[in-house]
Design brief:
five-stranded mixed beta sheet; single chain
């Protein structure tokens, strides 16, 4: 029997604030949903407003990740490092 993995442990780095933390994240939630949990968590606050969430985006290495995609769709697995960078509009 093959078991399906639903969550993975990923390190998330917020470069500008020189912070990082490990998170147990769902593989099949959108990155936009995950950001709503991860970004405040790495800042050490309960929540952030939607305007500040629109300004940040996940990167894997130097590849910008689509906010509507999932960790699974981006082939992100245990031990990967995601970076949060500010979206330059």
């Amino acid at each position: 029997m093959i078991s399906i993995i639903n969550n993975i442990i990923v390190t998330v780095r917020l470069e500008r604030a020189n912070r990082e933390a490990d998170f147990d994240l769902p593989l099949d939630e959108s990155l936009e949903s995950i950001m709503k949990f991860v970004y405040p968590g790495i800042l050490g606050v309960d929540e952030t407003n939607n305007e500040s969430l629109e300004k940040v985006i996940f990167y894997l290495d130097d590849k910008k990740l689509d906010k509507d995609s999932t960790l699974r769709e981006n082939n992100i697995w245990d031990g990967n490092i995601l970076k949060i960078k500010f979206n330059e509009v």
